[in-house]
Amino acid sequence: MSVNIAVNSKRPVNLDLRTIKLPVTAYTSIAHRISGIILFIAIAGLLWMLDSSLRSESGFEHVQDVFENPLVKFITWGVVSALLYHLVAGIRHLVMDAGIGEGLESGKRGAQAVIVIAAVLIVLLGVWIW
Amino acid sequence: MVTNVTNLSRSGLYDWMAQRVSAVVLAVYTLFLLGYLIANPGLSYEQWHGLFSQNWMRIFSLLTLVALSVHAWVGMWTISTDYLTSMALGKSATVVRFLFQTVCGLAMFVLFVWGVQILWGL
């Protein structure tokens, strides 16, 4: 009964995300989606690298040469950073599916942990690449 | 409200499960490949080619490619049904969303076939 009243009432509903102050969990969720889109777009580039590097020795060296380009290095760092973030945030999803960290406070702590762990991994990745 | 006629399995629960199973495969492959590259700093062509000539590596890679296709489709489908709605786009929402999903599905299919060619065309 009460559900029907709530659904049918004329109360104003604000679903414009840009006007709402979002909690940290919302930011990690949106970042998970954005990193997913980046990875989807990046698949073609990664497959090209795999294709060239496996086809012949000269192709392998060509990929290595391309990778020496600072811009390519930066893009690779960006894509693999998206991968690492997506991976860490995805593991948090699986942990939450197991019933751990689903509460309001534990959820916030989980989101903060994702940000910290991903940031550390992304910095380490940068050190490895450069 | 967006109907779920275009989702992968016609069942939200099955899609949810497929997203997670494929995620585990993708995570294991990612960690393996990153670990391999970190463990082999001066990687040579012979070594790299040798790795992908192994049958287990080809099967592992093909499994990952299937998982990637499923995972990407469910992910892009979720995003399209969340944001490309009539609330955001008005009357053309269904057409825009359908076109977006078509492009994603087609792109993923082409990438999948290309990936199979890379793995088995050596």
How would you characterize this protein structure?
The complex is a heterodimer of chains A (130) and B (122). By secondary structure, chain A is mainly alpha-helical. Chain A has a single domain (22-129), classed as Up-down Bundle (3 helical TM bundles of succinate and fumarate reductases), CATH 1.20.1300.10. In chain A, 81% of the residues lie in helices and 0% in strands. Chain A has helices at residues 2-8, 24-55, 57-68, 70-97, 104-129. Chain B has helices spanning 12-39, 45-53, 55-83, 86-89, 93-120. Chain B is mainly alpha-helical and 122 residues long. Chain B has a single domain, classed as Up-down Bundle (3 helical TM bundles of succinate and fumarate reductases). Chain B is elongated. Chains A and B meet through α2, α3 and α4 of A and α1, α2, α3 and α5 of B.
Helices and strands in order:
The complex is a heterodimer of chains A (130) and B (122).
Chain A: H1 2-8, H2 24-55, H3 57-68, H4 70-97, H5 104-129
Helix pairs in contact in A: 2-3, 2-4, 4-5
Chain B: H1 12-39, H2 45-53, H3 55-83, H4 86-89, H5 93-120
Helix pairs in contact in B: 1-3, 3-5
Describe what is shown at a glance.
Helices cover 81% and strands 0% of the residues of chain A. By secondary structure, chain A is mainly α.
Helix and strand pattern of chain B = HHHHH
| Strand percentage of chain B | under 5%
Distance between the termini of chain A: 62 Å
Spans of chain A of 5+ residues with little confidence (pLDDT < 50)? none
Structural class of chain B: mainly alpha
Highlighted features:
heterodimer; A: 130 residues; mainly alpha; 3 helical TM bundles of succinate and fumarate reductases; 81% helix; elongated; B: 122 residues; 5 helices
